[in-house]
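#structure-requests
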Amino acid sequence: GEEGEEGEEGEEGEAMETEATVPNGHAKGAAKGAPPPPPAPPLVLPEEALRFLFASAYFEWSAAAAGGAAVEYGGVPQPPPSPLVRQVCSERFFSLFGESCTALAASNHAADGKAGGGGGSFAAMCSAECDLLAKVDAWWLALSTAAPPATPLSAKVSAALKTSRALSARLRVLADAAEGGQRSRLLSLELLGRHLQLQLLQRPAEAVERLEEVKACVEEMTGKGSAKAREEGKPAVVEVVVDLLLSMMEQVSGHTRDMCKHVLRAWGDELNEASIELFVNVIKAKEAEEEEEGEEGEEGEDDDEDDEDDEDDEDDEDDDKEDDE
């Protein structure tokens, strides 16, 4: 009788242990009847705030626009923004825009796929950020016809803006027709080009030059580059892209650095010896800079110690003179 009871207890213990080891710690019965997790709420971006900050930073409304086009952009600011207020609006716009892009990246992070594989989280993230940048460009176009820019664009910058818009549209068409790594690289160049287009408002000279490099990369990828340049040993597209991104990552803006990291993900499979050497050179330059700063700090400490020794010697001489007197 006792052996029978022990056997029943052993079976019950095994059953309890089996239930407790169901994945995620749920019992089998509970797992079958558990309701599915609620869907994540849709991401809502602060587009109204972005529109208002963008218009207030870079455009001048006339009083007549108060009841018209200006309504969509928060109305005509009163009093008119001063240069300092425009600067604050510009800084806040780019800060809020960076936060929005970070939220977009996080919302697409759970999608399937990996870098260089086309589709998946990377392609979704690039497409989402490009769509947001396209909205900003649409505001730019609309504002250009309703309010003059606070700082007129030069002829060179205006030409670069026109070229950038055509290049972005072309890259999206090419990306939609491509697959795999090529699609990811084309989307990454669209993302880079649209960011540089926005920087025409902040650093126009740098942005113009960098947009020309992006355009040259696209021409090379689509086989429309100069055959003579290729024969003369022109750098590979990946080398140009890496060099461009490394120079942009030196900027203070954290969002710009994040964007550069996103673009680099698409080019990981294309890295060659020359492009890796570019990374190594940056690391070496950083190490040399840190060593130089360390040596300067040691020299400063040595100088301080020498000054203290000189002061001690002067004090000893004064004491000797007092003793002699």
